[in-house]
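Q&A log
Question type: sequence-to-structure
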Amino acid sequence: MRPKTRPRRRGIRIAVWSLVAAVLVAAGLAGTVLWQHSYDLDERRVTIRHGGHVLNAVLAVPRDGRERHGLVVYVHGDGPVDATHDDGYRPIWEANAAAGYASLSWDKPGVAGAPGNWLDQSMDDRADEVAAAIAWARARPDVDGDRIGLWGASQAGWVLPKVAARTPVGFVVAVSPAIDWLRQGRYNLLAELRADGASPARIEAETARSDTVRALLARHAGFEEYVAAMGGDAHGMTADRWGFVSRNHTADATRDLPALRGVPVLLVLAGQDTNVDTADTERGYREALDAGGALTVEHYPDAAHSLVKRSVERSDLRLALTALFSPRSLFADGFLDGQRRFLDRSGRAPVQGRALSSR
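Response status: OK
Response body:
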């Protein structure tokens, strides 16, 4: 009697072809990820020296064959941000490259092995750092010194006009900037409480705690006094962070925005921003800059503070999958094209004041 081998062989064939199919799918997915994270630019690691400090930077250059390019210098928002912002800047750098601009960004002090501690900085320190980076760039033969501008998000709103007061800049892109530190903090607190569905009693308690913190800051209280006032619970605050807030809590862009008069400014505002009161920001920028005719305002109704689509940001899974498989589509529709168009205009002629709504 012959052994029954056919079913066994058939099972082996099915297993083999299933494995082959799985490998092909995995290879296809890997290829998709690699393709999606391949940007039309070349990145170079560079070192910038500033007053005894070292900035570990990335210079992203267009692949257009030109020997000289304009330059967009990046000013980070709050937090321990590295040069690429965990790769989040790269789609924006690609949009810059499409307009013929290189991009320059660096690890904050103390981030990704960079020397120093960003929490030791004031907004003036940060502005000095950016001005030094611009001076470094102007000395390079591959940078067009007449076409250097700034791109900054969130906390950078207190840095950008200070830089413009120190050194000439050709343009500014301000993404979700705030005007007044304390007003921004209160707006953020209440917006997040409302988003959480907080009860009136909780809102009252959190507001009272915030008022206590403000009183401590006003009298220059130390970290130990802060912890004692909070009943021994630091609420995530560290001594370094308390020092940073103490140095910067009086920041108010109103005093510095006049330095941007006559400079083409693109103000980018998100419609779902729980960090910054965009109406307050737009009002402040218009009061300071509209008369010069160089302010452009773009609204993105469906965007969160980071200009990522709010629908994407709400889901950790969707955010992770989009970042992996389609990083350019993280951002609100039209945002990347809006950056490119603004740079394209800024490189050719003065920008006329206007208010745009991108949908």
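Response note: The radius of gyration is 24 Å.
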